[in-house]
């Protein structure tokens, strides 16, 4: 630590930018006042967070997700008035809002907020009470209980045994996998929504667009672990 404190601020910022987890950056920033003063200016934090998001594999879909969610919100403004039906207008509308690929400051802060907010959902996922009900094999479950659609038991705020056995690094990796699976499915749902509301000049173009979306859903380049993570997380949510 003493060697770290002797480094100039520019080198400290560079070290921050080499990280690939937002939580690691926050922990490093809190290690002492000098490091925190280097990290604290909003423009410096923005630069650091942008670099971390680009480095992290679990944030790979953030640019797409930000644009797609924003597009959904903008199109929702037309709820009170009819959406223009002209094909050229709707085509330009989608092209305009999906053309920007760089993460803006608003996108960076949205990612940071989402990263911390989803931690609450992950805590529910790891809760002993919820895991006991959620992971219960079907042949052990009471059909009468599920037919009654009774709510799940309340969380007991105690982490299940499987996660308690993990060390800090493994727990953080578990959350990264959870977050990546959740955002991957979220982005695909948004893409499917765009395909449904977009304007097509012909049925063939529509079919081609939906075929590309199917390829994204199946995604043969995605590892088996990632596919299983998505199935488990989506089923839980």
TrEMBL record:
F-box domain ranges (all copies): 1-52
Protein's name according to its UniProt entry: F-box domain-containing protein
SUPFAM superfamilies: F-box domain
Species assigned in the record: Aspergillus tanneri
């Amino acid at each position: 630590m003493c060697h770290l404190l002797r480094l100039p601020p520019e080198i400290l910022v560079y070290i921050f930018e080499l990280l690939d987890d937002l939580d690691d950056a926050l922990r490093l920033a809190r290690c002492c006042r000098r490091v925190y003063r280097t990290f604290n200016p909003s423009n410096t934090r923005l630069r650091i967070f942008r670099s971390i998001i680009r480095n992290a594999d679990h944030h790979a879909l953030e640019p797409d997700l930000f644009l797609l969610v924003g597009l959904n919100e903008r199109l929702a403004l037309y709820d009170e008035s009819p959406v223009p039906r002209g094909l050229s207008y709707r085509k330009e509308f989608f092209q305009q809002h999906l053309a920007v690929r760089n993460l803006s400051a608003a996108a960076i802060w949205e990612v940071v907020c989402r990263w911390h907010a989803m931690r609450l959902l992950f805590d529910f996922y790891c809760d002993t009470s919820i895991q006991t009900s959620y992971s219960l094999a079907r042949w052990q479950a009471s059909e009468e209980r599920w037919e009654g659609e009774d709510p799940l038991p309340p969380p007991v705020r105690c982490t299940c045994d499987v996660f308690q056995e993990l060390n800090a690094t493994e727990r953080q990796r578990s959350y990264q996998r959870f977050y990546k699976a959740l955002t991957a499915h979220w982005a695909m749902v948004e893409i499917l929504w765009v395909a449904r509301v977009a304007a097509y000049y012909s049925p063939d173009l529509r079919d081609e667009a939906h075929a590309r979306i199917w390829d994204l859903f199946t995604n043969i380049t995605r590892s088996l672990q990632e596919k299983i993570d998505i199935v488990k997380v989506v089923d839980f949510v």
